[in-house]
Design brief:
By secondary structure, this protein is α+β, with helices and mostly antiparallel strands. It has two domains: 182 residues, no CATH class; 25 residues. It contains five helices and four strands; from the N terminus they run E-E-H-H-E-E-H-H-H. A hairpin with a 5-residue loop joins strand 3 and strand 4. The longest helix is centred in the middle third of the chain and has 28 residues. It is a multi-pass membrane protein. Pfam families: DUF846. One of its GO terms (biological process) is protein secretion.
Length: 214
């Protein structure tokens, strides 16, 4: 089962939350999935392959070829493949999240954010290692494209602005969508950070008490 949050682009800005059943029911596994084991190596590879390849091509394109068109087309294709793979495949497999936009019969746009529910036994389909890989690649690469955008702007490389802006937009859209999936429509980043810090403090306190007792 997945938790689904719908955000409707209407004047009331109301959010609808409902439980939906998506994908196969046999996705639920035992607690062993929480171990630091990569359960989806192919998805983990392609989660980083397209976006890292686009960055490498951008950095080395002037050394590889003198054709700006060839470099631009290659980078945009890699960015497009990355956007589709991360949005539709790797997010679902690696962290149990997915988002998309749909238009209903009335022409209204709906942003849909889904997160896989944890079962009563606390089982997951993604491991801690996959989660680290997913969020590291998802956050780091858009930041690199932002740096490229400022670099192209200040160095007056106007012809590259369209390419780097495309990188910022496509990878930034995935980042925004998955943050909304993770945080939820009724939570903000501040409350999530506070909860995280509280958990870390509690763990350290318990660990110190265990050491003292031993």
């Amino acid at each position: 089962l997945f938790r689904q949050n719908k955000m409707r682009n209407t004047d009331s800005n109301s959010d609808d939350i409902e439980d939906v059943s998506l994908f196969d029911a046999d996705d639920d596994v035992s607690r062993r999935s929480k171990k630091s084991k990569i359960r989806h190596p192919v998805a983990s590879f392609f989660h980083l392959f397209f976006r890292v390849s686009a960055i490498v091509v951008y950095l080395l394109c002037e050394l590889l070829t003198s054709s700006f068109i060839a470099c631009m087309v290659t980078i945009i294709l890699l960015l497009s493949c990355d956007f589709w793979a991360v949005k539709n495949v790797t997010g679902r497999l690696m962290v149990g999240l997915r988002w998309w936009n749909q238009v209903d019969d009335d022409g209204r746009s709906h942003w849909v954010f889904e997160a896989r529910k944890v079962s009563a036994q606390g089982s997951k389909t993604s491991s801690e290692a996959e989660s680290r890989i997913f969020w590291l690649g998802l956050i780091t690469c858009p930041m690199i494209w932002v740096i490229f955008a400022f670099s192209a702007l200040f160095s007056f490389k106007v012809k590259w602005l369209a390419v780097v802006v495309m990188g910022v937009v496509l990878q930034g859209a995935n980042l925004y969508g998955y943050i909304r999936c993770k945080v939820g429509s009724r939570k903000n980043l501040t409350s999530m950070a506070t909860s995280y810090l509280g958990k870390q403090f509690l763990r350290q306190t318990v660990a110190k008490e265990d050491q003292t007792a031993s």
